[in-house]
Amino acid sequence: MRVTKDPEIRRKELMDVAEELFLENGYEETAVAHIVKKAGVAQGTFYYYFKSKEAILDAITDKYLDILIENMENIADQENLNSIEKLMAIFEFTSSFTGDRKGIMDFIEGGRCAHLQIKFNERMSSGTIESTARVIQQGIEEGVFNTEYLEEAARAYIGVTALILQGVSDLDPKSPEFMRRLMALFYFMERILGAEKGIIANAFMEMATNK
Description:
By secondary structure, the chain is mainly α. About 75% of the residues lie in helices and about 0% in strands. The chain contains ten helices and no strands.
């Protein structure tokens, strides 16, 4: 007797298999035929759920964004952390998350799939402004940040972080260029937030030492 799976379960299974293959072999090297073979389904089943290989990458991108946004919101909600600790927790999570999915993230951010890059950047920005602004507001109340433009500071913070960290995963963490980019990032973070010079850089160094 043939068992018909729930459509959402089948869709998720196809996404999981595609993501695994994209990470192992690269997006461009993975064909729909590889996905259906590993998933144990017919090609018609794949095209019932996704119009193309790019469409399944689009769905995986949405999943990544949901995870990133949800985790940033959860960190912003933690009552036991001060504002600097929350910024460090967000930085650590986003760095490890994108690093674990480097192959796909490089493809999305490399401009080879322009509409996905635009979608990722726009939704990442709009979806994280509120949680970032809450962390900044907490820092203002704690007396460590000083800015009159809360939403604009959140937008600038997110934009500068994304711009400076672009391609940083390709660098040796012990290289001068890697450290230069990090120090530049912390410098601009502090300027945007109106924070004391060195406060974010020192927090990062302490976090790295304690790992």
